[in-house]
Amino acid sequence: MTTDTTSISTIRCRPALTRTPTITSRSATSTSTARTSITITDTSHQSPTDDGADDDTDDGQGLVAPLLPLLRGRRIVALTGAGCSTESGIPDYRSNGRSGPRNPIQHDAFLRRDDVRRRYWARATLGWARFRTAAPNPAHHALAALEEAGLLAGVITQNVDRLHHRAGSRRVVELHGALSEVKCLRCGRAEERDGLQRRLLQANPGWLQIGADALPDGDSDLPAELVAGFRLVECGRCGGELKPDVVFFGGNVPEPTLAAAWELFAAGEVLLVVGSSLTVYSGFRFVRRARELELPIAVINIGPTRADDLVQAKVSAPASRVLPRLARQLLSL
Ligand SMILES: [Zn+2]
């Protein structure tokens, strides 16, 4: 991948008391349009002594400084991924060196195989109790505030947790659907996940306790003999198989969803990527398009992304730490 950046600067910030910023820069030959790429890495969240408190004496202005020139005066469209929700207690499978979820459900296998659906629903019945109680974090609230103020056109999200809605965001396109909705594979009838949860627990009394005992670390496969005893629940109308209304690995973003995403994308003058490594093409396509249109691209994400060579500014820090400061600056509060 080629780069046409004219200079790259990296500033490493530490907690206020021990801050010793290191600034490095290098020049590169410009090949086409002149661009400046700036990366800021905030290592304070990695410090064992960092309790997450606001330790920035400059109110984080240094952290958001490279983003402001790109975002100020331009209508923003945000593209969010798992990193936006990690502070809400929803694991980001691609952070901390992990390449993806363990044994991800494959779309085709879910449609074809009874045992795959059984394994999914056995685990999902356990996971839902915790998932549904996750609350929006400051990153979600900051995006909602920017939309409320008319600075943000909306959010295209890869997340299935519906936390943007709960934070007050109004225009949200859920590329991968939402776990709170379930659809019948046969007749298409929609059902709320909470209602299905009640039916699942009626069919599998005591499951939450059995499962919790079997999953002490919350990230293990359930023993096969336990899964085999799990009773699947069917569509209340036609008896068909049920699927959460999300896009599994190997599945495609539905056309109407994609059309809505492109419509929202077109309303933006700058793309702000939040908490996504952009590994999945469903999100990366918007970065590619922005680049083709020569729209500025800014990234807030811990760790490398697939688009690092394509963006004008990147801050490597938690979204919940950067976005509230960014919103305050943009709203001039
Ligand atoms: Zn049905």
Which tags fit this structure?
333 residues, alpha/beta, Rossmann fold, 2 domains, nine-stranded mixed β-sheet, three-stranded antiparallel β-sheet, 12 helices, 32% helix, 20% strand, elongated, disordered N terminus, binds zinc ion
For CATH, the homologous superfamily of the largest domain is named as TPP-binding domain
Question: Treating each run of at least 4 consecutive H or I residues as one helix, how many helices?
Answer: 12
Tell me, briefly, the overall form: elongated
Task: Estimate the mean pLDDT confidence.
Answer: 82
Task: Domain count, please report it.
Answer: 2
- Unreliable spans: 1-34, 46-57, 94-99
At the third CATH level, what is the topology name of the largest domain? Rossmann fold
User: What's the N-to-C terminus distance?
Assistant: 40 Å
Tell me the total number of β-strands.
Answer: 12
CATH architecture of the largest domain: 3-Layer(aba) Sandwich
Largest sheet: 9 strands, mixed
- Look at the structure and give the CATH class of the largest domain: Alpha Beta
Element-by-element helix/strand order: EEEHHEHHHEHEEEHHHEHEHEEH
Estimate what percentage of residues fall within beta strands: 15-25%
Determine Rg (CA atoms, Å): 21 Å
Order of strands across the widest beta sheet? 2-1-3-12-11-10-4-5-6
The amount of helix comes to 25-40%
Bound molecules: zinc ion
Helix/sheet category:
alpha/beta
Q: Your description of this structure?
A:
It is elongated and about 55 Å long. The protein is built from 12 helices and 12 strands. Mean pLDDT is 82; it is low at 1-34, 46-57 and 94-99. It folds into 2 domains: 5-90 and 134-176 and 252-330, Rossmann fold (3-Layer(aba) Sandwich), CATH 3.40.50.1220; 107-133 and 182-246, no CATH class. Strand 7 and strand 8 form a beta hairpin. It starts with a strand and ends with a helix. The longest helix has 18 residues, at 114-131. The chain has helices at residues 61-64, 68-71, 107-112, 114-131, 138-148, 163-167, 193-203, 207-214, 224-228, 255-266, 281-292, 319-330; strands at residues 5-13, 22-27, 35-42, 76-80, 152-157, 172-174, 177-184, 190-192, 242-246, 270-274, 297-300, 313-316. Helix 4 (114-131) packs across helix 8 (207-214) and helix 5 runs parallel beside helix 12 (319-330). The strands form 2 sheets. It has a 9-stranded mixed β-sheet with strand order 2-1-3-12-11-10-4-5-6, sandwiched between helices. A 3-stranded antiparallel β-sheet has the order 8-7-9. Helix content is 32%, strand content 20%. With 333 residues, it is of the alpha/beta class. Bound molecules: zinc ion. Zinc ion is lined by residues 184, 186-187, 189, 235, 237-238, 240.
